[in-house]
Amino acid sequence: MPRHGVSPRHSHPRSGWEQGLDSFLGPPRLLWMGLGLALVLALALPDSLVLWAPAAAHPLPARGHPARFNAIVTQLRNAFGWWNLTCPLCKGLFTAINFGLKKEPNVARVGSVAIKLCKLLKIAPPTVCQSAVQLFEDDMVEVWTRSVLSPSEACGLLLGSTCGHWDIFSSWNISLPATPKPLPKPPSPPAPGAPISRILFLTDLHWDHDYLEGTDPNCADPLCCRRGSGLPPTSQPGAGYWGEYSKCDLPLRTLESLLSGLGPAGPFDMVYWTGDIPAHDVWQQSRQDQLRALTTITALVRKFLGPVPVYPAVGNHESTPVNGFPPPFIEGNHSSRWLYEAMAKAWEPWLPAEALRTLRIGGFYALSPRPGLRLISLNMNFCSRENFWLLINSTDPAGQLQWLVGELQAAEDRGDKVHIIGHIPPGHCLKSWSWNYYRIVARYENTLAGQFFGHTHVDEFEVFYDEETLSRPLAVAFLAPSATTYISLNPVSPPSLQVTASTK
Question: If you read the UniProt record, what top EC class would you report for this enzyme, in one word (predicted)?
Answer without folding.
Answer: hydrolase
